[in-house]
Automatic annotation (TrEMBL):
<keyword id="KW-0472">Membrane</keyword>
<feature type="region of interest" description="Disordered">
    <location>
        <begin position="347"/>
        <end position="376"/>
    </location>
</feature>
<keyword id="KW-0677">Repeat</keyword>
<keyword id="KW-0393">Immunoglobulin domain</keyword>
<dbReference type="InterPro" id="IPR013098">
    <property type="entry name" value="Ig_I-set"/>
</dbReference>
<feature type="domain" description="Ig-like">
    <location>
        <begin position="159"/>
        <end position="238"/>
    </location>
</feature>
<keyword id="KW-0325">Glycoprotein</keyword>
<dbReference type="InterPro" id="IPR036179">
    <property type="entry name" value="Ig-like_dom_sf"/>
</dbReference>
<dbReference type="InterPro" id="IPR003599">
    <property type="entry name" value="Ig_sub"/>
</dbReference>
<keyword id="KW-0732">Signal</keyword>
<dbReference type="Pfam" id="PF07679">
    <property type="entry name" value="I-set"/>
</dbReference>
<keyword id="KW-1015">Disulfide bond</keyword>
<feature type="domain" description="Ig-like">
    <location>
        <begin position="58"/>
        <end position="140"/>
    </location>
</feature>
<protein>
    <submittedName>
        <fullName>Lachesin</fullName>
    </submittedName>
</protein>
<dbReference type="InterPro" id="IPR003598">
    <property type="entry name" value="Ig_sub2"/>
</dbReference>
<keyword id="KW-1003">Cell membrane</keyword>
<feature type="domain" description="Ig-like">
    <location>
        <begin position="249"/>
        <end position="342"/>
    </location>
</feature>
Length: 483
């Protein structure tokens, strides 16, 4: 008889199985097959007639125990028997009454089943890669008729969505009702939860059960819905179901009138809601000529959410000729919609002409204030010359106008020079003149208000650069009446 013999087969041909287990007599194996067997009663008489009263009977030290395992893992049932002696231990799967093993010999032809033992006391039944049909009671028995223990193997199965029995992408017209359904298998039986992906509080869905029904659906119900199956056995699984709510397009404008300066690149926008997605166009009034992207126009669109499209029209180098009405339009299988944008031009401000430099009219000088161009040029050169090379100022008759060394006041040698203040000189600093280290002195001679006296304003011990600067400033002051 082949491995995996059933109870019925063993009753029909017990000797065939005996031949597979060396050293095992029929009277030793019959109790393993069950007390309901006709051979069991015969075997019990045989066993009793052979039992030595002085030999202790086999006894089970502990229960086999129950095992809960997730499908695909390995398990081991352990049976500890004391005083086994010459008797054998067998493993039986209760639901099918199929013998799994006798002593150290595997009987079933299931390749995932094996047995091990230790010290003729501990007997193990191993099942690798447990499957759902392995779930059952398993008995550990000896061929002593009253001995045996039983344990239960529970096989848990993670949830799995049955696609063929669940909704796929679903469409509904706005205002209608929709029914979504989801089927899952697993052990224990999974519970189905529904959730809308990325939903706000307003659109949040928290339903439980295989079916989800919604009435009077709107465009806000559009989106992906998750069917989530849980049974406490990881991992939980989910299926993504797309719900499309179809409706005719609606075109809206954030602003329906714009004003742009000429010469700029300008952009106008329209917002379109539609499902299915609409075909969008731009037209220009008058004539309602359709606008196509070119070097002058650039029409683009971007998508937001499941049903919102933003239309954009860019007008390059905007001019007064481009100031008109523009129509943005959208259409799908359910209808169409459009809106009009008015675009005005703001003239470019005129570029101001460069202002001519304003010069005050020349003042006629009195004869005594007249100065020749050569003299003016000489005075200009005076301000820009090296201090060592600067000439000493003179009056109109060529006389030098300088104070006596060490004296800060004096008498004008020419009364026509009083109150003019046009005489400037740079000279080497003289020790004792001003108590400063040697440097350069700058003298500027001004009238004191008297017709016959003058005084000086001077700076001592300045650098050559500062001296030149001071002379230059004084020269500008001296020449201001001759501009």
């Amino acid at each position: 008889m082949a491995p995996g013999a059933s109870m019925r087969a063993l009753q029909d041909s017990p000797t065939a199985l005996m031949s597979r287990v060396p050293g095992t007599h029929s009277s030793q194996l019959l109790p393993v097959y069950g007390s309901h067997s006709p051979l069991f009663r015969h075997g019990r008489r045989s066993w009793s007639s052979q039992h030595d009263p002085d030999t202790p009977m086999p006894s089970f030290m502990d229960t086999v125990g129950n095992i809960t395992v997730i499908k695909g893992r390995d398990i081991t049932f352990t049976c500890i028997v004391k005083h086994l002696g010459k008797y054998k231990v067998g493993w039986v799967k209760a639901d099918t009454k199929a013998i799994q093993a006798i002593h150290h010999q595997v009987v079933t032809h299931n390749p995932r089943v094996s047995v091990t033992y230790r010290d003729h006391t501990t007997w193990n039944l191993h099942i690798r890669n447990v499957q759902t049909d392995d779930q059952s009671h398993y008995s550990c028995k000896s061929n002593e008729p009253s001995c045996g223990q039983m344990g239960f193997l529970e096989v848990q199965v993670p949830p799995e969505i049955v696609d063929d029995e669940s909704s796929g992408e679903t469409e509904v017209v706005e205002g209608g009702h929709v029914h979504l359904f989801c089927k899952a298998t697993g052990y224990p039986t999974p519970t189905i939860y529904w959730k809308k992906e990325g939903a706000s509080k307003r659109d949040k869905v928290q339903e439980k059960g295989e079916n989800l029904t919604m009435s009077r659906v709107t465009r806000h119900n559009m989106g992906h819905y998750l069917c989530i199956a849980k049974n406490g056995v990881p991992p939980s699984v989910s299926k993504r179901i797309m719900l499309r709510v179809n409706f005719e397009p609606l075109v809206t404008l954030p602003i329906n009138m714009f004003s742009f300066p000429e010469g700029d690149d300008v952009t106008v926008k329209c917002r379109v809601e539609s499902s299915p997605q609409a075909v969008t166009t731009w037209r220009r009034v008058p004539g309602e000529q359709m606008i196509i992207s070119s070097h002058k126009y650039n029409a683009t669109e971007s998508h937001q959410d499941y049903y919102v499209t933003i239309m954009q029209l860019t007008i390059r180098n905007f001019t007064k000729k481009d100031a008109t009405n523009y129509i943005c339009a959208a259409s799908n299988s359910l209808g169409s919609s459009e809106a009009t944008i008015t675009v005005n031009a703001i003239p470019k401000p005129a570029t101001p002409k460069p202002e001519q430099e304003h010069r005050p009219p020349k003042q006629m000088s009195s004869p005594k204030n007249e100065i020749s161009k050569d003299e003016l040029r000489r005075k200009e050169n005076l301000a820009l010359s090296s201090p060592d090379d600067l000439p000493i100022p003179t009056d109109e008759s060529g006389r030098q106008i300088i104070p006596v060394e060490g004296i800060n006041t004096g008498v004008f040698e020419d009364e026509n020079l009083e109150n003019q203040g046009r005489n400037t000189r740079i000279g080497e600093h003289q020790p004792g003149f001003v108590e400063q280290p040697k440097g350069y002195d700058v003298f500027n001679f001004f009238g004191s208000g008297s017709a016959t006296t003058w005084n000086t304003c001077c700076s001592s011990d300045v650098t050559r650069a500062m001296a030149v600067l001071m002379v230059f400033l004084a020269t500008l002051y001296n020449n201001k009446s001759f501009e």
